[in-house]
Design brief:
The protein is of the alpha/beta class. The protein has helices at 2-5, 27-53, 70-90, 97-116, 164-179, 182-191, 233-249, 255-265, 275-278, 283-306, and strands spanning 15-18, 21-24, 54-56, 63-65, 126-130, 137-140, 144-148, 204-206, 216-221, 224-229. The chain has a three-stranded mixed beta sheet with strand order 5-7-6.
Length: 318
């Protein structure tokens, strides 16, 4: 407090009347009068602050530490997607139907099925496909999904074009980052007591910049800015575990997730824009998914058996 007030400290000290004359209060009295209630007030503030940051994890059902509301997730996601689309359009990049009509429709269908079985089906989900030769995809907070055509590029892509199960494995993983609210949880941990005014605009930084609360990096690639998230290993593992269950519940074969990450483990990570770099791949990661495969397969079989192919009625000739 003394450092904060600076030269004004003395003039702002409480004053008392001594023998009919107005005098500055002694330092000892000032300390007692100020610090005791201040300490009590700060204690109440801290308790309220931490309690306000505690909420229920939509995925695990357990308490989590997150200052931000669901609405904040949506606001951040809107900002990231709006910024990305603006840069893409500015540089004449084809988007959605213009990028690849068949794949865009297929991706939308997969997203709709996965989000319907997710923990937060009411997010305002939105998916775009950009004709950029980057092997990557992401989902910003609030369910804003971006897929780059390089993801299924024949020579260096991760997903086999036309393989719904593999595409579902990637999309389910990315959607899991949104439903687990990894971004706002990371911002909460990084912010601590440094309250951010416009948190949405602070989540994007240029590549190489140091920022504790910044989770999307702006990378200049092929003449255009792309925005790629970076998560902790814990976040990635959690998204793997949630994603494989999402894809299974949506009717996609979870074995594809294991196959995909085994393939990723063999690929080079030298390209910082690729999914191989932004999603740390290793044999250990594929092994972790294998441990979850029995449960995911059980869900997958149960779902597919519940929706058997309808038998065609034989037509009668009158």
């Amino acid at each position: 407090m003394r450092e904060f007030l600076g030269n004004q400290y003395l003039s702002l000290r409480p004053r008392i009347v001594v023998r009919g004359r107005l005098q500055p209060e002694s330092s000892s009295h000032a300390v007692k009068r100020f610090w005791i209630p201040a300490f009590a007030g700060m204690t109440i503030f801290l308790v309220s602050f931490f309690l306000a940051g505690c909420g229920k994890d939509y995925v695990t059902g357990k308490s989590t530490y997150n200052f931000y509301s669901i609405g904040s997730d949506v606001d951040i996601g809107n900002y990231v997607m709006k910024t990305q689309l603006k840069d893409l359009k500015k540089n004449g990049i084809k988007i959605d139907l213009e990028a690849d009509a068949d794949e865009y429709r297929r991706i939308r269908k997969i997203v709709n099925k996965i989000t319907a079985v997710s923990h937060i089906p009411d997010f305002p989900y939105e998916v775009h496909l950009a004709d950029v030769n980057i092997v990557n995809a992401w989902c910003a907070p609030g369910g804003k999904i971006m897929v780059y055509t390089g993801l299924y590029q024949p020579r260096k892509g991760l997903v086999q074009k036309g393989n719904d199960d593999e595409m579902a494995a990637v999309l389910a993983h990315e959607i899991s980052h949104a439903t687990a609210r990894h971004v706002t949880e990371m911002i909460t941990k990084a912010s601590t007591f440094q309250m951010v005014g416009d948190i949405a605009t602070s989540v994007i930084v240029q590549s190489g910049s140091a920022g504790g609360a910044d989770v999307f990096q702006q990378i200049y690639y092929g003449g255009v800015n792309v925005y790629l998230p970076h998560y902790s290993r814990k976040n990635e593992s959690e998204a793997d575990a949630i994603g494989i269950m999402y894809m299974a519940a949506a009717g996609y074969d979870p074995q594809a997730a294991v196959n995909l990450w085994e393939r990723a483990a063999r690929e080079s990570k030298s390209d910082k824009t690729s999914i191989f770099a932004s999603h740390p791949a290793s044999g250990a990661r594929a092994a972790a998914l294998k441990k979850l495969l029995p449960k995911a397969t059980e869900i997958y079989l149960a779902v597919t058996k519940k929706a058997p192919a309808k038998k065609k009625k034989s037509s009668k000739i009158n």
